[in-house]
Write a structure and sequence with these properties.
The chain is an alpha+beta fold. It contains seven helices and 29 strands. The radius of gyration is 48 Å and the shape is elongated.
């Protein structure tokens, strides 16, 4: 009895083993490379199957979440082993432990596996290469710009990074210029920034597939970095929005209109700048139809220079307008007013702005000639008047200086009286004034100070009386009076004495 149960059990085990072997043989086998993969370097995986046509029809899309499929390979038959082979070349999109999902359908699908992806290593200096991407927005309006930034960190300040244009029918894109700066948080590391500004052209949920970034050393591509797949949601514009209406904020910038009058009938130029955040193709020129002539101004076709600058969210298209115009009226001439409309993605509404280009003063040529002539004549008169006053001032200053020298060198009352005559000449008073009349004129035109009156009375006593007092006090008082009348004289005298 026991022997029968042993035989029965052995038969069941044998049957199950045969069925399991057949089942495993039906599955697609996935052969991975030995050791960890490196970010930016390709890996090769092999798919094997014993069934015809299985590998041809296999869906590879589950791989795209974590891998970029660089080469899908073709199916070949290994006649010796009686199996079919397909070799895939993949690039990991990020580092760490990455799952390779089950490939195929039903019982023939492969078994999910994992592979380790290490950081990229610079072939030139052996240092680690860091790489990650940043997206500014994933919920957008149609034609609204967004930015994808690629950040690569290296130990080298100078590297060769090649960023291709995004070639996709559903998007319009610009490439960002390379920006390089030192990493302040990690000395010795350098951060390189580049990327794309992208404008979606179709609505609905989409998968953004970005091209690879080639990292070169000595002209040879050592790594290719593939950004992750970004799901984005592009909302349609409201039905009332015209197709030609720009999507993105628009601002107007202009220097103040010059106050200098313009000549009627003469060609002049007006300049201003438009900054527009949106698709560059929408801003090739959207204002010229508003720059039309008026009753007082003839407007000619504008010259438009274009350029781009970039900010944290996208691109700014810059339009530099140079508008030739000829004023045909006289007086204040108003230049046209431009009207700017755009769809503001922030508020989801149409915004309208009006900007007056300014007002200029237009006058005929003969009035300009008359004004210039009158201005030159007035200027010449003022210069002659200033020259005459300057000469009079220096003559007066010289006379006062002579008087001060006489006062300091005086040894008698007659010497001081001669100094008073110099002062009288400087002030264009009559010659040969008595001391009393000199004092009355000084007091009438200038301040009458008690010290001056007292010192002149002492001078009169020395001149006409029998007094014989010291001249020191008289000299000091008169010198102070000279310096008060001519402050510059003090500086001139002090400079002269120092020499």
């Amino acid at each position: 009895m026991v022997n029968r149960w042993l035989v029965f059990t052995a038969m069941i085990f044998l049957v199950n083993s045969v069925h399991a072997g057949v089942a495993n043989a039906d599955r697609i086998a996935v052969e991975l490379p030995d050791g960890p993969a490196e970010l930016g370097r390709p890996i090769t995986i092999r798919l094997k199957s014993i069934h015809t046509g299985v590998l041809d029809k296999i869906d590879l899309s589950p791989l795209e979440a974590d891998f970029a499929i660089h080469n899908e390979g073709t199916v070949v038959r290994d006649a010796q082993r009686r199996i079919y082979l397909r070799q895939l070349q993949l690039y990991p999109r990020h580092q760490g432990r990455i799952s390779i999902p089950a490939l195929g359908d039903g019982s023939r699908a492969s078994v999910a596996q994992s592979i380790d992806v290490s950081p990229a290593v610079d072939r030139k200096d052996g240092s680690r290469i860091g790489m990650h991407t940043e997206i500014s927005s994933q919920a957008l309006w149609l034609k609204q710009g967004f930015r994808v930034t690629v950040v690569i960190e290296t130990d080298s300040e100078i590297v060769d990074i090649e960023l291709p244009v995004l070639d996709s029918s559903g998007f319009e894109s610009l490439t960002l210029p390379l920006e390089t700066r030192s990493d302040s948080a990690r000395p010795g590391r350098t951060v390189h920034r580049l990327g794309w500004v992208i404008h979606p052209l179709t609505t609905g949920p989409q998968q953004l597939r970005l091209p690879s970034i080639a990292f070169k050393r000595d002209g040879i591509v050592t790594h290719r970095f593939f950004p992750p797949l970004y799901p984005i949601e592009v909302n349609p514009l409201p039905g009332y929005i015209p197709v030609t209406l720009p999507v993105g904020k628009i601002s107007y910038h202009a220097d103040p209109v010059s106050w200098i009058p313009v000549t009627r009938g003469q060609l002049n130029e007006l300049t201003f700048r438009i900054d527009a955040a949106g698709m560059p193709s929408q801003f090739a020129d959207f204002l010229s139809d508003q720059l039309v002539s008026t009753d007082s101004t003839a407007i000619y076709p504008a010259e438009i220079g274009t350029g781009n600058k970039f900010n944290s969210s996208g691109a700014i298209s810059q339009l530099h307008y140079r508008i030739p115009f000829v004023p045909t009226g006289i007086g204040l001439v108003r230049l046209p007013t431009i009207r700017i409309q755009y769809f503001d993605p922030t508020t989801g509404t149409i915004m309208t702005r009006q900007h007056a280009l300014g007002t200029v003063l237009s006058i005929p040529r003969w009035i300009q000639v008359l004004l210039v002539t009158a201005s030159l004549a007035t200027l010449a008169y003022l210069l002659l008047l200033a020259a005459r006053e300057t000469r009079a001032y220096w003559r007066r200053l010289s006379a006062y200086r002579s008087a001060a020298q006489r006062i300091r060198a005086a040894v008698s009352a007659q010497d001081i009286k001669a100094a008073l005559a110099d002062i009288a000449g400087a002030e264009t008073w009559p010659a040969n004034l008595t001391v009393d009349r000199w004092l009355r004129r000084w007091s009438r035109q200038f301040d009458r100070g008690e010290p001056l009156v007292e010192c002149l009375h002492q001078l009169q006593a020395n001149l006409y009386g029998k007094a014989n007092t010291s001249l020191d006090a008289i000299q000091a008082t008169l010198l102070r009076a000279c310096y008060q009348r001519q402050p510059l004289l003090r500086i001139v005298d002090s400079t002269g004495r120092q020499k």
